[in-house]
Amino acid sequence: MRFLLTDEQRAFARSLDAMLSASDVPSAARAWAMGDHAPGREVWARLAEAGVFALAVPRAYEGVGTLPVELVVAFVELGRHAVPGPVVETVAAAALLTRLAELGDASPAKRLLPGVAGGEEVLTLAVDGCGTYALDPDAATVTLVVEAGGGSGRAGGASATLRVARGHGPLRGSVDPVRRPAVPGPEGAALAVGPQVAGAAAYAADVAALATAAQALGVGLTLLDRTVAYVKQRTQFGTAIGSFQAVKHRLADTLIGLEFARPLLYGAALSMAPADIAAAKVSAGEAAYAAARTALQLHGAVGYTEELDLSLWLRKARPLRDAWGTPAQCRARVLGT
């Protein structure tokens, strides 16, 4: 089966690519890693103006409707340009609030979703069973926490609580310095309690996994593009190393991995089935990580340097592979174990 984007979806991707190319995102990412969020918030505002966050918000809350395929298209571009911030967590939180409204509790959605669509609200999210940290809580306007009650794993108990965390613990180090996780504060007002919170959180975790897979694919595509450009310029024995058979094979393997992940990603966006999302997540994450290893090897020692923008993408591949579902967890979901 072939999954082809429509003309409108391809035009949307091109417009995001052009906008982000003109926004000096690498400088914003470097500033974000140092705790300066102003340049990143400017990029965030441009993304909101382009309608990226509105794709995760229903029309009833000033969005354009929940459009998973278009969201995937957008997040591939966000990964390709190394956009900083809790972009995945914001759309996952929007999905949680949307599903909660569909299950009968619309109050949190009315409070937060219009701001998400417009870019005023930057949300981050921590869900029991998906890790203890929230990403970039120092930059978020709201930190949401789902705590399971009476169950285990993916907030899948009989009941769960959704609350707004008050503050957060110290920021932790990460393989990717642009990703700044911290444990949310233990206190904060409850927004909703009950089994509907557990169901909404499980759906939000799936949306987060899908968006992370799209981001990972974009990271892998940029790593491949930059590596191909580099091997055409770097020479050994008077010959571009890109002409060496071993280098061609390594790049071909990287391309195959990324292209194999692409239809799984769009297929998961169409079905929104948890097993399909897990398959897309493990494929895109592993492909991006393989692209990072290839890029590092073929760039040689220069690939390790902080000054080279390549490092922004190299350091994302491993965290994105493991965020919102490690490869082992995703494979277990695919197998139904």
Walk me through the structure:
- It contains 11 helices and 8 strands.
- The protein is of the alpha+beta class and 337 residues long.
- The strands form 3 sheets. The chain has a 4-stranded mixed beta sheet. It has a two-stranded antiparallel ribbon with strand order 2-5. The chain has a two-stranded antiparallel sheet with strand order 7-8.
- Helix 7 (195-233) runs parallel beside helix 9 (274-299) and helix 9 packs antiparallel against helix 10.
- The two termini are 27 Å apart.
Layout of SSEs?
Elements: H1 7-21, H2 25-33, H3 38-49, H4 68-80, H5 87-102, H6 107-118, E1 123-127, E2 134-135, E3 142-149, E4 159-164, E5 181-182, E6 190-194, H7 195-233, E7 235-236, E8 239-240, H8 245-271, H9 274-299, H10 310-322, H11 327-335
Parallel strand pairs: 1-3
Antiparallel strand pairs: 2-5, 3-4, 4-6, 7-8
Helix pairs in contact: 1-4, 2-3, 4-7, 5-6, 5-7, 7-8, 7-9, 7-10, 8-9, 9-10, 9-11
